[in-house]
Specification:
single chain, about 270 residues, alpha+beta, 2 domains
């Protein structure tokens, strides 16, 4: 059996696992479906196939079994495996029903831009060794399951009223983020601050701020780095660590993504204004 070129196995992705092959391995084309179903019945699996063009991406959502007849040779392939207990927990916390009562519909040849984007983000994150940290990993996993529940579950969600002011809850989470910028926060940790479930926090946070918790956390880190750059006393490497980034390269990439310039260019502009 040909091992995946990229895998999340060594990154501690326990609830949602990710695998990628640039070309579908031959054994996928001839896998015995009975054995495959026995092996994969414990997970909900998403198969993503593409020939490299944006319009070619097709997804197969399989609550059990393996779609060998649907996998096309010569295409790239990514696989997202979701542990049922994690799906049940997110479903229960989100008001979709009791644990064990959720059923995901089998779908083939789906073109779902959001789900494909989530798979692409997972690929990028695993390829980069999990550089964005635990909060990003947890957010990707939770958003993937929420998307499945919203679009492919057989049970409609039940609304539940919040027991605290949304503004107060989000303000407390943001303050907690500010106090822990150097930490690798978990989504469940932030959810406990707001006294809500992880999926509910993502929905509340995005509705209130326009960003996911991870996106906002990165913005706070960039804002702290700007303050440190203004002092002009630390190296870029030291500032990267103090602002909570994995390393200087990670710091530079995200700083430029949000501001349009590198930290060095920003520092030079500050110097020129003095």
């Amino acid at each position: 059996m040909k091992l995946p070129i990229i895998s999340s196995e060594k990154l501690g992705w326990d609830n949602v696992r990710f695998f990628y092959w640039p070309s579908v391995p031959a054994h996928f084309m001839y896998m015995d479906e009975a054995n495959a179903e026995a092996d994969s019945k414990q997970v909900v699996t998403i198969y993503g196939c593409s020939d490299g063009t944006p319009e070619s991406g097709k997804l197969h959502i399989c609550p059990h079994g393996y779609p060998s007849r649907l996998i096309q040779h010569g295409f790239s392939l990514f696989i997202i495996q979701i542990v049922p207990s994690f799906l049940d927990t997110i479903a229960y916390e989100s008001g979709y029903g009791q644990i064990g009562a959720i059923e995901i519909k089998h779908k083939a040849y789906v073109q779902d831009a959001k789900l494909w984007q989530l798979g692409s983000w997972m690929l990028e994150e695993v390829r980069n060794g999990g550089v964005h940290g635990t909060l990003y990993r947890d957010s990707l996993a939770t958003m993937t399951v929420l998307h499945l529940l919203q679009h492919y579950a057989l049970i409609a969600p039940l609304d539940s009223a919040p027991n605290r002011s949304t503004h107060q809850q989000i303000a407390e989470v943001i303050q907690y983020m500010r106090e822990h910028l150097e930490s690798d926060l978990e989504l469940t940790e932030l959810a406990s601050v707001a006294n809500v479930s992880s999926p509910h926090l993502i929905r509340l946070f995005k509705k209130q701020t326009g960003y996911t918790p991870h996106q906002y956390f990165i913005r706070l880190r960039v804002e702290r780095s700007k303050v440190l750059l203004q002092y002009g006393k630390e190296s870029l490497k030291a500032i990267a660590i103090q602002a909570g980034f994995a390393d200087q390269g990670h710091f530079t990439r995200l700083f430029k993504r949000l501001t349009g310039i590198t930290p060095m260019q920003y520092a030079n502009e500050l110097t020129a204004r003095r």
